[in-house]
Amino acid sequence: MSLRSQLLKGILEGCILSIIDKETVYGYELSQKLQHFGLNEVSEGSIYPILVRLQKDGLIKGEMRASPTGPKRKYYQLTNLGVKALFEIQEEWKNIQKPVDKLLNRSVADER
After folding, report:
1. Around Cβ 57, how many Cβ atoms within 10 Å?
2. Nearest Cα to 81, choosing from 62, 53, 63, 54?
3. Contact indicator for 58, 6 with CB cutoff of 8 Å
4. How far is CA 79 from CA 12, 49, 76, 92, 106, in A?
C-alpha cells in the first residue's frame, strides 16, 4: 500500500461525509466526485464498504430512487448524527493539520 493510500485511508470517511453533506449522491457519483477533487486512486470497491459502515453507524441513510437511465439507485444523505460527526472530523483535521504542516515544513532555524 502506498504512502498516499495509507494517509487517505484515515481521512476518506470524512471526505465522503463532506460530499454527501453538500448533496445527496449515489455510490458511483460519489466516486466521480472524489476523482474530481483529485482522489483518483479511490475505487468504487473501497467506497461501498465505507457507505455500508456509515449507514450501519447511523451517520448516513440511503434511499432507493428511480434512475433516469436504468435501474434504481441508492442515494445517500447525512443524518443529524452524520452532520455532528462531520463537524468533529473537520475540527480534528484542523487540529492535526496545523502542527503536522509545521513539523513537515520546518527549517533547521525553527528548531533553535
Report:
1. 13
2. 54
3. no
4. 18, 18, 10, 20, 40
User: Interhelix angle for 3-22 vs 44-56, to 10°?
Assistant: 60
Which triple of cell numbers denotes residue 4?
498516499
Calpha distance 20→40 (Å, rounded): 18
Contact 24, 75 (CB under 8 A): yes
- Decide: pTM greater than 0.90: no
The pairing of strands 70-78 and 60-67 is antiparallel
Q: Is 1 exposed, middle or buried (0-12, 13-18, 19+ CB in 10 A)?
A: exposed
Query: What tens digit of pLDDT does each residue of 33-82 get?
Result: 999 999 988 888 889 999 999 999 999 999 999 988 889 999 999 999 99
